[in-house]
Amino acid sequence: MTTVAQLPATDFSQVRYSPLTASRLDDGTQALQLRYRQEGYLYFSAALSDSLISPLLTAMLNTLSPHIVWSEKVGAPVLRGEPFFESDPLWDELYPRIQSLEALHGLFHSEEVQRLMRVVAGHNPFVYPMKMARIAAPKKIGFETPPHQDAHSHHTGPRMSGVWVGLHDAESSMGRLAMLPGSHRRGVRPVYEAQGVGGVQCVIYPDEQHWHVSDVRAGDVIIFQAQTVHRAQPNTDSERVRLSVDSRFCDYGAPVFSTNLEPHHGWRIPELDWDYIYRDWGLGTPQYYWKDYPALF
After folding, report:
1. How far apart are CA 279 and CA 64, in angstroms?
2. Element (H, E) at 38
3. Helix 89-99, helix 50-64: angle, nearest 10
4. What is the tally of helices (H) and strands (E) in the chain?
5. What is the mean pLDDT of each successive set of 10 residues along the chain, which is 297 residues long?
6. Contacts of 291 (CB under 8 A, 6+ apart)
7. Which residues pair with 245 in a beta bridge?
8. Is there a smaller number of Cβ atoms within 10 Å at the N or the C end of the chain?
């Protein structure tokens, strides 16, 4: 069992930042896979069409209203009222409805996302049932996602990857996703208790002072290895909210730990189960597709 200790939070004041290394599908599979092995992530700018992203953003905003609404003036979601954090009472009230959005789950089964997954997972990627929606509100500094590895939180080996999707343009003040390039090559790290999403932070070694981060646009995609350290920067904006979604996937047949079959936060929100999520869906998105997956443990 992993030992979790209480240690001081990491100081990022002296960290150096460079832009995310940009990739394109026409770079070729061999070059992309080499970059993935070297840096631990791939960043595809504007990889997804507005026709895929816009309906999900609209559905999420409809669900979050009146607490978070779209502002044409600033071109982003904005907070109206008190800020809230993942697992706050208001978040718990709204999140089951967001989880029920077919557009959230369907996004990761779309051909546009699947073709990106195939770069690192081969011809038949298996998308984890657990899909996540992120609401990075301002005025909650210190509650952002701390540095971590999905290998720990998802109980997985290196064959799993994360896929993150930006739903709108987001700049430096809005809590961007930062990657620690090459960190996957140092294995799974010890963790300790930390404030923020997930509740734990992995060890950052003294020589790891160079992170990659960029402003993002709607439809940007970041794919990252299970052992790549990543974190959310704090949202220091006065009103703008950063909305994004993410999931996990692997090549079909790779081991998948059973907790990844549950809805995100289904373990702590009583009504949030698959029957609740699927109750109003049509037939366009797979349901219970993991029931016969051959490598659960």
Report:
1. 20
2. helix 29-39
3. 140
4. 7, 15
5. 50 90 98 98 98 98 98 98 95 98 98 98 97 97 95 94 98 97 97 90 95 98 98 97 98 96 96 97 94 94
6. none
7. 133, 165
8. N
